[in-house]
# Entry
Amino acid sequence: MTAISTTQSQTIPGGVNPLSIWLLEEGWQIGDGAKLTRRLADKLRELGIPVSRIRLTLRTLHPQFIGISYTWSLGKDDVEVFRPPYSILTSDTFLKSPYAAIFEGAGGIRRRLDVPNASLDFPILEELRAEGATDYVAMPILFSDGKIHAITFATDQPGGFSTAQLGQLYGMLPALGRVMEVLALRDTARTILDTYLGRHSGERVLNGLVKRGDGENIHAVIWFCDLRNSTPLADSMPREEFLGILNEFFECMAGAVLDHGGEVLRFIGDAVLAIYPMEQHAVEDPSKCPIHQAACRTALSAARDAVGRMRELNARRRESGQDALGFGIGLHLGDVMYGNIGVPERLEFSVIGAAANEAARLESMTKTLGRPLVISSEFARVIPENWVSLGHHSLRGVSAPQEIFTVPDAAEAA
# Structure
């Protein structure tokens, strides 16, 4: 395998690599991988290195994706952003790519594409040559933790890259690594916060709400749901099988919330607490407020979606001879405190307040009333709907009986 020599010139006459200087003086301020890739391409061409394609690939910490890649191609307006899933690691796409060799420790790979009997040992090389590329190089980018990332360059320059051009590309790698490591750490931090706290909560923490008590009073639709009879289920089957059921349930519930723009705050055993926040306090008449109406409609659509997903899941379970899963969803509307609670050393970003407690009490009525979806009168009065009253009921911890509603289509999943 042809490697790039590390003894080649890394600077231009005078001992200064202008690419390194640019990265450290300007590039680090860009703060976005796609924009940085485009600006790097512009800078290379400005310095007389006629790249026709750049692909920058970072391996990041993410529950769904192995990393992220940015691809700039000459003549295209946008930088292509791609997050490859973990499954790609066992695919021919990866195993037959230069990245597999780079990540295993290859110091660099170069392939001339405009010479007789060109070595086209990677499928990407045939594609690039068909597009007019004359040369291709792949180089590792090292981070301070020892992890290897990669950048590739292609050119359509007759004769390929010159030795001096390769030297400049190689010489900028340490500076590029420092800049990209900062971007990767930011991406990882945001991913972890979004994954474990939720998109809205994670953004607030990233913006500085990190102390106990930091938060704000908001008005929100509060969603609370749980899985019925989870304790007998857990006691009657292997742990892995029960966890599989629990995750299927969460896919139906939390998946519907997220797909409809809500914020999942907590998984509490077999229950889910979520909100549809509004960036303002309660108004005198929520039924006349477009923000409240939109939040309630969206939350109701998510609840109907979740009920439909559970109906499909239970149909599959019955076909395989398994019992259907029972569940309940409660929707409420009210004021909550949205922020950090806990002890200084271990905080949780969540919602607290009477409305949050009432949502949990409301959801518990789904079992009593035999309906998978119940809705508070505060929620129901905001949007016109063919509501079905389930009567007035006392909720534990709530002084006066509350009228509870549902929708006709929820009866099918009861």
